[in-house]
Amino acid sequence: MKYYVYILQCADSTLYTGVTKDLQKRLAQHNSGRGSRYTRGRLPVRLIYFEETGDIKSAMRRELHIRELPRAEKEKLIGRAVNP
Fold this sequence. Notes:
The protein is of the alpha+beta class. Helices cover about 45% and strands about 25% of the residues. It is built from four helices and three strands; from the N terminus they run ββααβαα. It has a three-stranded antiparallel sheet, sandwiched between helices. The chain is globular.
C-alpha cells in the first residue's frame, strides 16, 4: 500500500504537512473544510509537495521529520521537488 507525505500551502501562506493514502481525495477534504482544524480557517489550500512511501510507519516518521524542519528548510525541500 502506498502512502504519501504532503505539504499544503494555505491561503495565509503557512505550510501544513500531512499523510494520506489518496492525495486528491485528501486535498478535496481540506478544501471543503473537512480536512483538518488547522487548514479549516486558512482556505483554500494548494498542494505544493508530496513524497511517496511504502508504508504508514515510514510516512509518519517522514511527516514528523518535515514538521520539525524550519520553514527555510521546508522551502528548500519544496524547491528541489519535481512535483506536483
